[in-house]
User: Which sequence fits this backbone?
C-alpha cells in the first residue's frame, strides 16, 4: 500500500512537471488530477486518462486523499476549493502566490483550526529554497530586510535591454517570442507577481501579516533605453526589486519598483530569468539565494520537496512540522511610499540653457535633497537637454514635492523618469 | 518549566555566540557548559559561573539534558564524548566538521541505533542554510554536482592577492593580523578544512559515504602573484574550490584544489571571507547559496536553528525530523584525481628560444591535450620565458604525463604551476 495519496489541481506546465517528478516516488500515489479541459490531448507516456476530472471538488471531497497539491493558480474558484479541502482535513501544498498574498490569513487560520498545514515553497522564487529555510534553520534570526529579484520575465527583459540597448517594447516582444513573457504581460511587467511574492516573504520574515493592497508597486514599462544607458554610465544596472524591511518603531516598508543597482552588488549580477533573494538577519548576517524562479522542473522541485517532507513527517507523527505552521495574527504596520527614504535617479528634460542646473540644484536644496551626481547628457534637436541627477538619501515625499516644483519652473520641460537607487 | 534542557560543550567564539543567542529563547535552558579552563575570566554580563564544568562527561551523563550542543571541535576527546552522549539517548547539534568527516558513519549509525538524531548545519559554511535544505525541501532532487567556496580564510587571502597583487606570504600575514587566519594556518591554507566540509556535503548530496582519505586535496600555498596576474589577463580569478560530482557509472569525483574561475561565473564574484555553494540537481537546476561561512553570529544562527527545529519537533512527537536522519550505508566509489577530466592552466618556465612553444604544442598533442590558449609572458633576466597554457578538457593523467615529458625536454626549465580551470 502506498503511504500517501494525493490529488493534483491544475495540470499545466507546473502540474505536469510535478506529475513527472512524482513518478520516481513509489510511496506517493496520485489519485486524481483536476483539469480545465478533460478532453485535451496530454503528451505523457503511459498516462492513465481515468485520473482526470474537471471537477476539483472530486479531489477535495475524496476521503482517500490526504494531501491536495494546488498548481492551478488564481483566486476563483481556487480559494473556495482549498477552503473545502482544509475543512475536509487535507494538508495543502500550493504554488499559488496570488491566493496566499490575498487570502493567506484566512487560509492559515482555517488550517490551524482544522489541524492541517499549508506548505508553499513553490509560491515564491520557484525552485529556490527560501520559505522552508526561513521557517526552519533560520528561525533563530530576527530578519530585518529582504531585497530580491522575484520575477524572471522582467529580469529577462531588463537584462536584454541592458546587454543590447533595446527599447522596452522590442525587448518585451523578444521575450514573448521566446516564451519568457505572456501575451498579456501585465501581471509580470506591472509588478503584480513580484508584489504577491514579497507580500508572502515579508509576512513570514517579519512574522506580521503584510497587506498586499498597501504594497507600493511600480512596474518596468516606463524604463527607457536612455535610462539603461545613463545607469550604465553611472555604474549601475536596472532591476525590478522587491523590498521588505523593518524600519523604525517596528513598522515595515514593503514595495516593488525598478531600482538602479550598483554593479558590484550581488543582485546586479543576476541575469536573464534567474531569481535571487538577499536576506539580512540577526545573527546570520547577509545571505543570498539564487536560482531558477520559474519553470516546470524547478517549481516541481519545491512542490515535491514540500510533499516529501510532509509525507515523512506524517508517517512518524500526527503533528507534523510544528515549525511550519503559519498563523500571523499580528498585522504589520506598513509605511506609505511617501515616508520611505531612498537615493534617487531623476531624468529631467530641460531647456538647453545654463540656468537649468542652477534651478535643479536650488529646488532640490530647498526640499532637503542633497545631489551626489548631476550629469548633462547632451542636447536634443528641440534645443532641450537631458539632465540626470543622482541624489543622496532623501525622503520620498520631499522628492515628490521637488518634482512638482521643478515642473513649475520655465526651464524644466518634463520629468522623464524617477527611479530609486540601491548601492 | 523550560521545554528543553541543553548542555554546551566548548565555549570559545562559537560557544559564546550560541550562549548569547539562546538568551532570547526562554523555552531553552542551558544546564551546563563544558570548558577547557574553568578559571578563565568570561566577559559575559550576568554570567552564572556555576554553569561551567571542565568535564564534558558531566554533560553527556546528565539525565536532565536532552540535547548536547558540541562546538568544541577536534576528534579527541570529542568523539568519545559524543558517543557517550548518543548512548545516553541525547540528540546532538554539532559544528564539528572534522569529526563528522572522519567518524560520521559510526556516529550516525550509533544515533540510529539509539533513536536520536544528529544535526550539523553549522559544520558546513557557517550561517548558510545548506544541510537542512538538502535534507528537506530539496529532497525530490538527484544532486549531481556541488562546486563551492567553503573556507573564508583562503578566499580572503586569494581576494587580497588579486585586488592588491600581493604575494601569498604577504597576504597571509595580513590575514593573520586581521584575525582571518590562525597563527598556524595549515588547516585552512592546505585545504583540510575545505576537505572536511566537502566530504560532509558530498555524502548527504549523493547519499553515499565519501571517504575523507580519498579526497584529493591541494592548498593555496603554491599560488604566486604571477599566477594571479596571468589568470586576470585571461579573464579568470583564482579560488580554492571544493568539488563533488557524480561521474559515469555512479562513481563520484570529490576534491579540493585551487581553480581559475571565469570572471562571469557566480563563484568568481564571491569575495573576502564569504562562502558560496553552487548545487546542481534534477529537477531544480542550479542553485547558489552565499553568505558568511564562519564567525560567532552566523555559526550560532545555524546551531540555534537546528536546536529550535529539534525543540519544536520534540514537543510534538517522539520521532522528530525523520527526513534529517543520516545513515549512509552505501559507500561512494570515489575516482582518483588521475581519472578526472578538467581544463588546465599550466605555467611553464622555458628557454627564451623560438622552439619552446613548438615543443609544448607537440608534447601536449602527443598526450591528447588540446591547447586553447598559449601566451608568452615576457622574458626574464636569465634569458628564460614564462609561458602560460590553457588547455581544453583533458584527462589529468594525460596532463601529468605531458608535464613529465616537458621536463625532460632541454628547453623547458620548470613547471611553475598546474591549476585547474572552471568556466
Assistant:
Amino acid at each position: 500500500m502506498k503511504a500517501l495519496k494525493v490529488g493534483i489541481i491544475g495540470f499545466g506546465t507546473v502540474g505536469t512537471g510535478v506529475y513527472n517528478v512524482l513518478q520516481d516516488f513509489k510511496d506517493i500515489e496520485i489519485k486524481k488530477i483536476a483539469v480545465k479541459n478533460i478532453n485535451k490531448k496530454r503528451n505523457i507516456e503511459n498516462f492513465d486518462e481515468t485520473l482526470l476530472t474537471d471537477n476539483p471538488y472530486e479531489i477535495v471531497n475524496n476521503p482517500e486523499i490526504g494531501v491536495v497539491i494546488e498548481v492551478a493558480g488564481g483566486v476563483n474558484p481556487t480559494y473556495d476549493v482549498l477552503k473545502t479541502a482544509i475543512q475536509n482535513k487535507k494538508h495543502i501544498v500550493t504554488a499559488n502566490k496570488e491566493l496566499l498574498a490575498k487570502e493567506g490569513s484566512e487560509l492559515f487560520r482555517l488550517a490551524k483550526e482544522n489541524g492541517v498545514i499549508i506548505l508553499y515553497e513553490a509560491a515564491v522564487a520557484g525552485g529556490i529554497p527560501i520559505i522552508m529555510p526561513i521557517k526552519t534553520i533560520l528561525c533563530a534570526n530576527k530578519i530585518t530586510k529582504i531585497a530580491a529579484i522575484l520575477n524572471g520575465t522582467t529580469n529577462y527583459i531588463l537584462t536584454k535591454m541592458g546587454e543590447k540597448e533595446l527599447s522596452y517594447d522590442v525587448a518585451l516582444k523578444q521575450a514573448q517570442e521566446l516564451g519568457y513573457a505572456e501575451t498579456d504581460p501585465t501581471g509580470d511587467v506591472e509588478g503584480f507577481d513580484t508584489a504577491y511574492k514579497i507580500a508572502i516573504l515579508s509576512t513570514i520574515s517579519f512574522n506580521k501579516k503584510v497587506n498586499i493592497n498597501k504594497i507600493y508597486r511600480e512596474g518596468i514599462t516606463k524604463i527607457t533605453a536612455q535610462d539603461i544607458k545613463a545607469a550604465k554610465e553611472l555604474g549601475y544596472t536596472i532591476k525590478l526589486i522587491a523590498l521588505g524591511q523593518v524600519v523604525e518603531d517596528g513598522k515595515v516598508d514593503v514595495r516593488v519598483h525598478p531600482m538602479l543597482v550598483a554593479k558590484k552588488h550581488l543582485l546586479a549580477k543576476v541575469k536573464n530569468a534567474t531569481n535571487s533573494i538577499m536576506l539580512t538577519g540577526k545573527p546570520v548576517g547577509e545571505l543570498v539565494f539564487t536560482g531558477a524562479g520559474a519553470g516546470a522542473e524547478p517549481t516541481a522541485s519545491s512542490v515535491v520537496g514540500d510533499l516529501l517532507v510532509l509525507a515523512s513527517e506524517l508517517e512518524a507523527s500526527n503533528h507534523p512540522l510544528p515549525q511550519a505552521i503559519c498563523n500571523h495574527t499580528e498585522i504589520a504596520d506598513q509605511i506609505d511610499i511617501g515616508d520611505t527614504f531612498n537615493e534617487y535617479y531623476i531624468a529631467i528634460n530641460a531647456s538647453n540653457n545654463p540656468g537649468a542646473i542652477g534651478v535643479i540644484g536650488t529646488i532640490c536644496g530647498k526640499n532637503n535633497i542633497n545631489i551626489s551626481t548631476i550629469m548633462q547628457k547632451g542636447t536634443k534637436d528641440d534645443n532641450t537637454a537631458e539632465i540626470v541627477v543622482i541624489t543622496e538619501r532623501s525622503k520620498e515625499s520631499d522628492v515628490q514635492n521637488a518634482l512638482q516644483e521643478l515642473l513649475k519652473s520655465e526651464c524644466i520641460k518634463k520629468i522623464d523618469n524617477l527611479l530609486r537607487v540601491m548601492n
In short: The longest helix of chain B spans residues 296-316.
